[in-house]
From TrEMBL, chain A:
Chain positions covered by the region annotation Disordered: 110-133
Ranges that cross the membrane: none
Top-level taxonomy: Eukaryota, Fungi, Dikarya, Ascomycota, Pezizomycotina
InterPro entries (UniProt xref): Ntn_hydrolases_N (IPR029055), Proteasome_beta4 (IPR016295), Proteasome_bsu_CS (IPR016050), Proteasome_sua/b (IPR001353), Proteasome_suB-type (IPR023333)
GO biological process per UniProt: proteolysis involved in protein catabolic process
Pfam families given in the database record: Proteasome
Localisation: Cytoplasm; Nucleus
A GO CC term assigned to this protein in UniProt: cytoplasm
Listed name of the protein: Proteasome subunit beta
Known function: Non-catalytic component of the proteasome.
From TrEMBL, chain B:
GO terms under cellular component: cytoplasm; nucleus; proteasome core complex, alpha-subunit complex
Naturally occurring in which organism (per UniProt): Corynascus novoguineensis
Name of the protein in its database record: Proteasome subunit alpha type
SMART domains in the record: Proteasome_A_N
Keywords: Cytoplasm, Nucleus, Proteasome
UniProt similarity note: Belongs to the peptidase T1A family.
Gene Ontology BP terms: ubiquitin-dependent protein catabolic process
């Protein structure tokens, strides 16, 4: 008998040979997500005088394959904010469910905006006891929460592989727009874009709203047109994009989300002048 | 009661020789001392109402809500020991959340009633616990529409989630009452607490269980609920009327459990007081 306790209960080396340590994956550190799998491309958003417009196309790519063409990447939150997701779609799904949970927790305090809006004197009785919109979770709060969540996941070396735009209103009921990415980095600006949109759409949007003052002069229709124009440019130049997209407008009256828009008046005339790659022989 | 001095009432989980559990019966007594709660299931929704007894002038009016939201479409009101009710609500929220975690869809009112019925029944089985000193009324509106799965990314199959019989209606308003024994039934109208006898007599006069379903509309039900609470109230005590309602997605609450708007509540109170005065004159 082998009297060494460390040998007990193991296959005998003299019969089975020495244990093959390569089955234990000790070749490196534990690794979580190293790259996204099914991805959504750019999300773009611009502020205007009474709110924010956001848009993202309906495509989820699997590498360069246009895999899913009816994906909803703009998610309303509590009918007061909109969250747009670029990057990994399964992480978006996780976050969406998490935000849904958060929204239900909010409804436990059952003063609701729509009930308050339905009654003529919606501000409630005797001051702050009832639905002051200031007491609700607004877009600024939501963005802060998401940024903490994303940063924490980054510090766990298990990031949620998304670039997120959050649009809505802040505590002073001014239009709010900010982004957070997989590292927990946050930005705020009158217009924002993630992914390829940061290169292709951002300069166009800056022409219309370089500063907060410019954005405060923009009308809703102007802002919607700028966003639609940017979506068109993105479809022309981003190979992981689609001509079907979702557009959301957040105002004080709530979120208007339309999830099946088609790019209109495309003109591919410029394509003929492009030389240097593709199938041309010149 | 024959239980006194026999020793069969000293612990939970002990039957008396004639087959009764006295601890449960004492818990029912605790319920009978609480403020009246009622629930009405009507044509297009559910109304919950409670006579909130004001125990001190130092309590802020309209604060300290007695009706709780469990999930977006579910509400609970209870009579009896309020801390027991709070715990019941906490558990109900956990159940609703766990259901969503597992099935990615909201829990139906029937399923929640079943789970909570089981939970309360467990508190009649063991020496180490006492039964709940509450009777709870659970109201909800299970969506009649095809609901997206929580976190759904695409549009899903064109035929919907399945499990639906063509030509049959699905979802709708639901109302359950759960007693300290764990017994629960579905009701057209439910009442519990101090004024339950008077309230039940009034509920029976309403058209709630007709052959084509209840005829009472949601708004009428709100007014009847207020009137019934006033009828069931014992005059010499201060009280506050608290009411919530739940309708379908196209109704006034958009499928959510919400507080009845102030304007409608005040109108219902006015009518209730008027009906009370007319009765006095007769």
């Amino acid at each position: 008998m082998d009297h060494r306790p460390q040998a007990w209960g193991r296959p005998r080396d003299d019969i089975y040979g020495a244990y093959d340590g390569s089955y234990l994956q000790n070749s490196g550190p534990k690794t979580a997500t190293q790259s996204p799998v099914v991805t959504g491309t750019s999300v773009i958003a611009i502020k205007f005088k009474d709110g924010v417009v956001m848009a993202a196309d309906n495509l989820a790519s699997y590498g360069s394959l246009a895999r899913f063409t009816d994906v909803k990447r703009l998610r309303p939150f509590l009918d007061t904010s909109i969250v747009g997701f670029g990057g990994d779609v399964s992480d978006m799904q996780f976050l969406d469910r998490h935000l849904n949970e958060l929204a239900i927790d909010e409804s436990y305090e059952h003063e609701s905006t729509s009930a308050a809006a339905a009654s003529p004197e919606g501000q409630g009785e005797q001051g702050a006891a009832t639905s002051a919109p200031a007491g609700k979770l607004n877009a600024a709060n939501l963005h802060k929460y998401l940024s903490k969540l994303m940063y924490r996941r980054r510090n766990d070396f298990d990031p949620l592989w998304n670039q997120i735009l959050v649009a809505g209103f802040d505590g002073q009921t001014k239009p709010f727009l900010a982004s957070v990415d997989l590292r927990g980095t946050t930005f705020s600006s009158p217009s924002l874009a993630t992914g390829f949109g940061a290169m292709l759409a951002q300069p166009i949007m800056r022409k219309y709203a370089a500063t907060e003052e410019d954005a405060a002069r923009l009308t809703r229709d102007e802002a919607v047109n700028v966003v639609k124009e940017c979506m068109k440019v993105l479809f022309y130049r981003d190979a992981r994009s689609l001509d079907r997209y979702s557009i959301a407008v957040v105002t004080k009256d709530g979120v208007e989300l339309s999830e099946n828009e088609q790019l209109e008046k495309q003109s591919w005339a410029f394509a003929e002048r492009i030389r240097g790659y593709g199938t041309q022989t010149v | 009661m024959t239980s006194i001095g026999t020793g069969y009432d000293l612990a939970n989980s002990i039957f008396s020789p004639d087959g009764r559990n006295f601890q449960v019966e004492y818990a029912v007594k605790a319920v009978e001392n609480g403020g009246t709660s009622i629930g009405i299931r009507c044509k297009d929704g559910v109304v919950l109402a409670v006579e909130k007894l004001v125990t001190s002038k130092l309590l802020k009016p309209h604060a300290n809500k007695r009706i709780a939201t469990v999930d977006r479409h579910l509400g609970v009101v209870y009579s009896g020991m309020i801390p027991d009710g709070r715990h019941f609500v906490e558990r109900a929220r956990d159940e609703a959340r766990a259901w969503r975690d597992t099935f990615k869809t909201p829990i139906s009112t029937a399923d929640l009633a079943s789970r909570m019925g089981g939970y309360m029944q467990a508190y009649t089985l063991y020496q180490s616990v006492r039964p709940f000193g509450i009777t709870a009324i659970v109201g909800g509106f299970d969506s009649t529409r095809e609901l997206p799965v929580d976190g759904e990314v695409g549009s899903g199959p064109a035929c919907g989630a399945g499990g639906k019989v063509p030509g049959k209606s699905h979802g709708g308003p639901a109302l359950y009452m759960i007693e300290p024994s764990g017994l629960y039934w579905g009701y057209y109208g439910a009442a519990t607490g101090k004024g339950r006898q008077a309230a039940k007599a009034e509920l029976e006069k309403l058209d709630l269980g007709g052959p084509g379903g209840p005829a009472l509309s949601l708004e009428e039900a709100v007014k009847e609920a207020a009137r019934i609470i006033y009828v069931a109230h014992d005059d010499d005590k201060e009280f506050e009327l608290e009411m919530t309602w739940i309708s379908d997605v196209d109704g006034p609450t958009k499928g959510l459990h919400q507080e009845v708007p102030k304007a409608l509540r005040e109108e219902a109170k006015r009518l209730a007081k008027k009906a009370q005065e007319e009765k006095m004159e007769e």
